[in-house]
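Ligand: zinc ion. Inputs:
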Amino acid sequence: MTPQDRRDFLRTMPLAELHRHFDGSIRPATLWELSKKYYSAVPDLDFEAFRHYLEWDDTLDKSLIDYLDKFHVPLQYTQFYDSIMRIAYEIAEDAYADGVRVLELRINPLIHRRAGLTTRQVLHATRKGLVSFTEKHPDFRSGIIVIAMRSHGGNMAKILLREILGEKEEYHSQVGVIGFDIAGPEAPFPPLLFRGAYELAGHMGLNKTVHAGESEGPERIWEALDNLGPARIGHGTSAGQDPELLKRLASEGVVLEVCLSSNLQTGAVADLREHPLPRFLDAGIKVAMCTDNPTVSATSLSREYELAMDLFGFNETDMLALARSSCEGTFLGGGCLCYEDLKTPESGVNR
Ligand SMILES: [Zn+2]
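Predicted complex:
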């Protein structure tokens, strides 16, 4: 199969994106426009130099610090209702153009409140942007996952949850909050700190996912499973080191949200050929291919599928099985209907 054949094939599959961050998915052109209109966060640059502050560049960027640096400039422009609404719309538009028909967009509302917006206003603006796109494209569905920062601690996570009760999907006719997540530095903030918050999320009827095992070892994933009861794990990369954990993830049907490019850039894996994705599939774990941050990682969801084909020799049957597995893992109400018109591969993942 030529690279073009692969791309043509991938274009035929409706994709579900379960792990995409709002602030890592903003169009550079939009931030450029906002920087010209309101405030230049990095003055005296042309667009290409400005883009470097936003997108990963293999020739220049090497470390987790380089990766995290990409989030500073966008925050200068995401403190305002209209910007958030526009950005949410454009994220949906970009995802749709890439073949995504189910989008779970995750956002940490607290980092967009510096100009005085409330948590609910941040989420309202996000919903409004997603709703206005969905109204034009009825074959597109989306929902919001709210992120609490690990570094803010467990009580702040509970306060955040109480604030967002009214933004839940069931209280709105279209887009709403469907899930809860924690993100940020893993080492100093173990899952145990968030047990109360995840209990509350469960009482509120929210679906649960957890960033775990990205920069830390498999013990963090065990702890997340034991203390937080998530249906999905964000990344879970270090699970590849622990055969017992792989068995548990498979037997409990926990979905791993796998983000290849991001894992390489942040150093979760040193070489993508060593990525545990094939081990996850061999162990019978449900995997959702995701982007994490398409702008920061300079990727797209279809590109991540293409990467998996290049790296691991997956064929079309494998890709269709992976796309279906993503869709089945969605938190969106009503489940996933993406594949009813597509031929189902007989053999599942062909490995
Ligand atoms: Zn993430």
